[in-house]
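Question: does this match?
>
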Amino acid sequence: MNYNNNAVIIKRDLLVSIIKLYLEGKLEEEIDRIPWKMTSGKDYQVIRCCVSHDRAILRTRIVARLGFSIEEFEDDGSSLADWVRKAIGRDHVTGPMLTVLDDACNACIKTQFLVTNACQGCLARPCQMNCPKKAVSIANNHADIDKSKCVNCGICLQSCPFHAIIKIPVPCEESCPVGAITKDEYGKERVDYQKCVFCGNCTRECPFGAMMDKSQIIDVLKAKKQGRRISVMIAPAIAGQFRGTLGQLTGALKKAGFDEVYEVALGADITARKEAKEFAGRMEQGEPFMTTSCCPAYMEMVKKHLPALAPRVSDTRTPMHYTAEIAAREHPEDLRVFIGPCLAKRKEGIDDPLIDYVLTAEEIGALFTAMGIDAAAGEEAANAGGPAKKYGRNFPWSGGVAGAVQGNLAKAENFKPVCVNGFNKEGLKTLKEWAEGRNTGNILEVMACAEGCIAGPMVIANPKIAINQVKKLAESSET
């Protein structure tokens, strides 16, 4: 997925506009003008059939940015100002954290394979010879696929020496690891929340931006306006999302109005120590293996799809929870807001009474933009709770959690880790094998996102750049 594309830019611009208007006390008065402002001017290029349709879609996007499910709150003729009043009036957030915008959904055609004009009608005809369903025929020296017979196995694509056969996917469906996204009778996508693990892959991969998270930024800004103190907890991956040092990021967050800033790496240090102790105890008791428990999308995966793994999942709580415990102990009167790169953390936040709200890197980036804050140009500030250790700061990338657990073991010679680096084909295969008892090690680190949290669905920085920044921070830390 590109981290600089029009869908991401529109999402960011909407957030910035909403935040600016709220801070100016003009959100209810001006919000209905946002779609018009964003689609006016001679340089605007119509995306759908007409500018009116584009504005209608932007209106629906704003409803999601205000924190509502489009499936539950269908368009009843209310103005966006009405939605603002609803958002300001609510006293808590609810799930699910994901919503599908019908107006934005392109109703993509069903996944299929297509023969292009690059076909040479070659003598070998491997596409025809190797098709298990005899769906490929040759006419006028050109291959053709009978869609009534095709089962989308892809053998024809793999066989063609000219790469003349292409796959036309449905990106959101293809990216979902659990088959939770399917078409309704109108060709629009629907999410089965009984299957969904909230990994966020669909929000990252849909090129029309139809899969959206439900923002909690208004709830946090409202609390601040009401005079509530707020402690924010920044996930280890967030240190790589903004240019500048960790101290400058802390200073920027305080300038934005947050009262205390905690590194979630503090909680990660606790998680690593506890999981190391738990791992040693489980091995002494003769258990075959243990899996980590930090990734909330993985926990949803176990609960909904791989219950055989449940007895092997670590009982240790997540870094977010342990950091919230520290914040609650030191500032019990504060609201506690987690800032991370992840959709699934919103589910964990709703389930954990110590967490009041969960914001994303996207929302914090928009907040900084709206307030004119440059994290890299600001003054340094110290984090609450003291500095985190190296192992806790290692958590955001694949292998980091396992490495942290190993580093906290008194005896690590029998430590045999295996890492699931994303809910891709290979990762799902590994999970299934371990669930069936065919484990190839004795500890399984699981991260729903390929490359780890540093590449979560709600990041704003290229993971290849962000990971270097976070690794430098970790390497400069005490063990």
Notes: The radius of gyration is 24 Å. The chain has 20 helices and 15 strands. The longest strand covers residues 335-340. The domain at 112-168 is CATH 3.30.70.20 (Alpha-Beta Plaits).
